[in-house]
Specification:
Elements (H helix, E strand, L loop, with lengths): L6 E3 L5 E3 L2 E2 L6 H32 L7 H29 L3 H17 L6 H28 L6 H23 L2 H7 L4 H26 L21 H14 L1 H9 L5 H20 L4 H32 L2 H17 L10 H28 L5 H29 L4 H24 L12
Antiparallel strand pairs: 1-2, 2-3
Length: about 450
């Protein structure tokens, strides 16, 4: 976080963190706490995804030929939990504030991590993943919305780069150790049950610490502390009125409608990678006489590499997002992501350098996609509807994820280990074509306010 310690006060009263101009009323200390919380959330999510194949193989003893479909069904169940609550969570972020949602999210992750190694049936695993999906709504609605509130519009690209890069970098470092936790506990003499309990409970400490920090260190907010720049509202907002406002704004603003369309794929890539790359490594390892614990170390390494390269993409594209047409940048990022996922079809050995090269390519593309889409939605969403806008954006993505997880799991078992990633490539290309058609019909022009604009 180069320059983060350098805090200056702009001539118009807005503070800076290095080159990033903050919105009026935002204190650097709160930004630092927020970054710490996002790092805790990101690591816990990545760790849980990486450990899932080990849970299948050694904790529940799932038949290898059924693991892909089960992974897809579990992903769909998680997304269903998110789908039900994400719209409400987004509106609650506008009504009661972001802080309480982050506290609830981290507390929910902590409880799920405690329960993960204790489950003994597939049915219990479905219940747990549903609860995880509900908890995830606060991560999306509270975290992403707070990231919209903190920067001045002219610094959105750089700030979102910081918000995404730092947690990714921290998670990458932690995953180098997190992926080795099962092997460490095994080497200490623990059996399969002790390996799972030790690994999950050790990682859960980060969620607990984050929840405590959010409660005591993050500034309290509420209806009187809505998004910076929000216009005075004569009538108290409600969940339904906020959601209706988002729909109305989408009808009137083609750029905003475009970003909602892209919401149908912008989250699917990371979830597909989390659900199936690790499972691919463990399944392929079984055919090469590599045990699940050893294969999990490779899966953890690939996760760390993806997070590092995604961070590099975020750093590189953050300043670009502040200086270029954000609509055009989103379209380029969609194309790059589609190409990256298509390259998975060329992999013949998941333990070789080819797999690492493709993961690097996808990580860079993901970084470009994340920074461009979040910069655009933060720019186009009305200040008093930022939480609700992110809720609708995530709702559309979650609805898509339910289908993608289910189909991807079936393809994994029947069509080959790389098939979920190929499906993701096709989906990105299809949305890119639809976006170009929408732009041609609406012919939107983009105006990026100056860095001094709120």
């Amino acid at each position: 976080m180069t320059g983060a310690a350098e805090v200056r006060i702009d001539a118009i009263g807005q503070k800076r963190i290095g080159p990033i101009l903050l919105a009026r009323g935002i204190e650097p200390a709160q930004v630092y706490v927020f970054l710490m919380l996002m790092s805790a959330c990101t690591f816990v999510v990545e760790f849980a995804y990486t450990m899932q194949p080990l849970v299948f193989a050694q904790q529940l003893h799932i038949d290898p030929g059924k693991q892909g479909f089960l992974a897809g069904m579990l992903g769909t169940t998680q997304q269903f939990g998110t789908l039900i609550f994400i719209g409400f969570a987004g509106s609650l972020a506008d009504i009661i504030g972001r802080r309480i949602l982050l506290v609830l999210t981290l507390a929910g992750f902590f409880l799920c991590m405690l329960a993960y190694p204790l489950i003994a049936t597939v049915a219990a695993l479905f219940v747990l993943r549903f609860a995880w999906g509900v908890s995830f709504t606060g991560f999306t609605a509270g975290g992403a919305t707070m990231a919209m509130d903190c920067p001045d519009n002219g610094s959105r690209g750089k700030f979102i780069s910081l918000v995404l890069v730092l947690p990714m970098a921290v998670s990458a470092v932690l995953m180098l150790g997190g992926g080795r936790l099962p092997a460490w506990f095994r080497d200490l003499g623990f059996g399969p049950e002790g390996v799972s309990i030790g690994s999950f409970w050790a990682a859960s400490i980060f969620a607990l610490a984050g929840a405590i920090a959010a409660f005591f260190m993050l500034a309290k907010d509420g209806r009187k502390a809505t998004a910076v720049g929000a216009a005075p509202i004569e009538k108290p907002p409600t969940i339904l009125s906020n959601l209706a406002g988002v729909v109305t704004h989408a009808r009137e603003n083609p750029r905003f409608a475009l970003i909602l369309l892209i919401g149908s794929v912008v989250r699917t890539d990371s979830v597909i990678l989390g659900a199936f790359v690790g499972l691919w490594v463990v399944s392929a390892g079984r055919l090469q006489d590599v045990d699940a614990i050893t294969a999990t170390k490779t899966a953890g390494l690939l996760t760390a590499i993806r997070l590092v390269t995604m961070s590099i993409g975020l750093i590189g594209f953050g300043p670009i997002a502040d200086r270029s047409n954000r609509v055009r940048l989103v379209l380029i990022a969609l194309g790059l992501t589609a190409l990256g996922f298509a390259a998975f079809g060329l992999i013949s050995d998941v333990f070789g350098w080819g797999m690492i090269a493709v993961v690097v390519l996808v990580g860079l593309a993901e970084g470009a996609q994340s920074i461009s889409s979040q910069s655009l939605i933060a720019q186009e969403a009305p200040a008093h509807l930022r939480g609700s806008s992110m809720g609708v954006f995530a709702f559309l993505g979650t609805a898509s994820l339910m289908i993608v997880n289910l189909v991807g799991g079936k393809l994994f078992d029947k069509a080959g280990y790389a098939s979920p990633m190929i499906m993701e490539s096709v989906l990105h290309f299809a949305v890119l074509v639809a976006a170009l058609i929408l732009l041609r019909a609406g012919r939107p022009t983009e105006r990026i306010p100056s860095p001094a604009a709120t």
